[in-house]
Specification:
9 helices, 5-stranded antiparallel sheet, Arc Repressor Mutant, subunit A, IclR family transcriptional regulator, 2 domains
């Protein structure tokens, strides 16, 4: 990671927070090396972050850790996303009942953003994975759920702008074929991708709906393709059940 000198102090401060978060704490020299910043600049920005409670300076270890203000921001974000304890418990149960890595994404603006994952050593989450992968919706189960919601004009405009990039040999790159797949997604309420996002992995997703049946998110599971053999119907049923409960929890009709 590097931060160009032309970037302003706010962006550099945020980059410092990201380094500290990614590494579970970091010293000033480590931060400076990671961001290609001068050491005095790191000290100055880190001091401001400490004074604002976004960082804590562990003096005897000569390192910085995240401050409690970030925890407060995280709690506020979780409330905005509807990410309550009962909702995350549903995702945990989805994982334990299927044995697959389980995911929750919520609609933020015009994209589904991944906000919660439950996995295990036996069935880890997809890697690499970013919280928000809207650049390639045609290759992901979450993305197909979203694209299936859009009208033809909105979908065509998006695809004309972003294209259908091939991530693996199995990624759908023909617009007519994708349109047929999305028609089935809309009809069945389940989206599948078989090694289209990452080779050697498959994923299925179901929409989470709010008031007036509007899309507000999606739940998904991922595993090795062979793990879904003879279990697709059971997996789809479980996804629909969890999606229904998560939607009800977010709407406030369940406790």
């Amino acid at each position: 990671m590097s931060t160009p000198a032309a970037v302003g102090p706010v962006a550099r401060s945020l980059a410092i927070l990201e380094v500290v978060a990614d590494r579970g704490g970091a010293g000033a020299k480590e931060i400076a090396d990671a961001l290609d910043l001068a050491l005095p600049t790191v000290y100055r920005l880190a001091r401001d972050l400490v004074e604002s409670d976004y960082l804590v300076h562990i003096r005897h270890e000569r390192r910085y850790e995240l401050g409690h203000k970030l925890h407060q921001l995280g709690l506020s974000l979780h409330r905005q996303l509807g990410l309550s304890r009962p909702v995350t418990a549903e995702i945990a149960r989805l994982h334990s009942s299927t044995g697959f890595a389980a995911y929750l994404a919520v609609l933020r603006g015009a994209e589904l953003v991944l906000v919660h994952v439950v996995d295990s050593p036996d069935c880890p989450r997809l890697q690499p994975l970013r919280f928000g992968f809207h650049e390639v919706p045609h290759a992901t189960a979450f993305g197909k759920i979203l694209l299936a919601e859009w009208g033809p004009d909105s979908r065509d405009e998006y695809l004309a702008r972003h294209g259908l990039r091939a991530l693996t040999a199995r990624t759908t790159t023909e617009r007519d074929r994708l349109a047929y797949e999305l028609q089935n997604v809309g009809r069945r309420g389940i989206a599948w991708e078989h090694e289209e996002f990452l080779a050697g992995w498959a994923c299925a997703a179901a929409p989470v709906r709010g008031a007036d049946a509007a899309l507000i998110g999606a739940v998904a599971v991922s595993a090795r393709p062979a793990s879904f053999d003879a279990r697709e119907a059971v997996t789809e049923t479980r996804l629909r059940q969890v999606a229904s409960r998560v939607g009800a929890l977010i709407r406030g009709s369940l406790t």
